[in-house]
Design a protein that fits this description.
With 401 residues, the protein is of the alpha/beta class. 46% of the residues lie in helices and 15% in strands.
């Protein structure tokens, strides 16, 4: 709708890292974009502040109980408060909404994203978990509804941009770059002892806690491999991973003639977020710019699947498909949370995921309701396994020494 003067933007997860960068892009757009609805789960004082600053038509406090307990007396009169998952679905499918920025973290992003896809919206997708859990359903639904799913994830935005250099049938490979995270040079022995604080200290990106831990285990790259498969309709063996510690080349497409097209920019999410909103146009962007007059170098190295076994799960799950993505994602979400709470070790995150993938009742073509059932099952099962096996083993190991 380029004839319209301003596009209405819904930001699902407006108080998070991607959400705040999105509001930055909107603010810098000189009216090209209008904040139409903003949502948050916790930290409702941040949501209220954003409501006062941007005066959107709606805000959604997706945690019902927290919404009831909060004092909304300062809410601007022109802003309507909605609550719960129903509120997320309502704003994501609203007839006046043009662009839905899907920036809730984890499986919790599913309902809003699906509502936006079903309503045929432009979806600027940061919530990769939607494609990991239910990529076959989300992409099919988008085809039926005419929704556009545009990548926000920097690697996928890079691939999206590089693909414009050739035709789809001439793509040989897609190469996802990975920073390698804070433990890129750690030995197996060192990895046994790393703490949550160390995992949260990412060398190149500033992001929410869940994806920051995913970067440290390299599970993030596993999830991104699955995401790439669905976004660009690729075969799994067409997708490679290379470690590139500077996070300047965001990914690469190799064509059949051997030509590689890469996209570079500083690690700043405002660029891919904005492109997902303005595409097919490009406009001035508040993101940092690369300065090629200063000397710097770019390095590449192969990933180490022994120290970062989570990476292997990406190919396996992308190949098996079906229920695997939902189970991997749920197990990982639980394990990351347990690690952040100091209840399991860093290396146990992979073990929980491996165990759940091996134990789960595989199905090749599940419906959404089944996937959500399995998500709940995998969360319970992960906690059980952590409590009865992992922690017990840890305590025994401790009392033995
Ligand atoms: P974050 O933790 O900073 O923010 C999460 C947002 O989701 C917050 O607004 C929070 O209120 C909301 N939220 C949390 N739990 C919720 C729930 N149960 N129901 C509804 N809303 C809930 O996360 P982030 O780093 O901004 O990441 C958001 C998504 O974007 C993730 O899927 C992540 O993988 C993806 N992503 C992030 C980056 C980045 O640079 N941060 C880069 C690429 C992709
Ligand atoms: Mg990424």
């Amino acid at each position: 709708s380029s004839s319209k003067s301003s596009q209405n933007v819904v930001v699902l997860g407006a108080t998070g890292s991607i959400g705040c960068s999105t509001l930055d892009v909107i603010r810098a757009s000189k009216g090209a974009f209008t904040p139409f609805a903003l949502t948050a789960h916790g930290r409702l004082d941040d949501l209220l502040k954003a409501a006062i600053k941007y005066q959107p038509k709606y805000i959604v406090a997706s945690d019902d109980a927290a919404a009831q307990a909060f004092d909304w007396s300062q809410l601007p009169p022109e802003t309507t408060l909605l609550t719960g998952t129903a509120g997320l679905q309502e704003v994501a499918a609203h007839s006046e909404a043009d662009i839905i920025v899907s920036a809730i973290v984890g499986r919790a992003g599913l309902e809003g994203t699906f509502a936006a896809i079903a309503a045929g919206k432009r979806v600027a997708l940061a919530n990769k978990e939607t494609l990991v859990v239910a990529g076959h359903l989300a992409t099919k639904l988008a085809q039926e509804s005419g929704a556009e799913i545009l990548p926000v994830d920097s690697e996928h935005s890079a691939i999206f941009q590089a693909l414009m250099a050739g035709s789809e049938t001439d793509v040989r490979k897609v190469i996802l770059t990975a920073s390698g995270g804070p433990f890129r040079k750690f030995t197996q022995q060192q990895l046994l002892k790393v703490t949550a604080d160390e995992a949260l200290d990412h060398p190149t990106w500033k992001m929410g806690p869940k994806i920051t831990v995913d970067s440290a285990t390299m599970m993030n790259k596993a999830l991104e491999l699955i995401e790439a498969k669905w976004l660009f309709n690729l075969k799994v063996d067409q997708i490679d991973v290379v470690v590139h510690p500077q996070s300047i080349i965001h990914s690469i497409v190799e064509f059949v003639d051997g030509s590689m097209v890469a996209q570079m920019s500083p690690p700043d999410m405002r660029m891919p977020i904005q492109l997902a909103m303005t595409y097919p146009e490009r406009t001035e962007c508040p993101a940092r710019k690369l300065d090629l007059t200063t000397a710097f170098s770019l390095e590449f190295e192969p990933p180490d699947y022994e120290r970062f076994p989570a990476l292997k799960l990406g190919k396996e799950v992308a190949e098996r498909g079906g229920t695997c993505g939902a189970v991997l994602n749920a197990a990982n979400e639980v394990a990351v949370q347990q690690f952040l709470e100091g209840k399991i070790r860093f290396v146990d995150i992979y073990r929980v995921c491996r165990h759940l993938l091996d134990e789960h009742p595989f199905e090749s073509n599940p419906e959404l309701t089944r996937l959500l059932e399995l998500d709940a099952w995998a969360r319970e099962e992960s906690i059980k396994w952590i409590t009865c096996c992992l922690r017990q083993a840890k305590d025994q190991a401790c009392s033995n020494t």
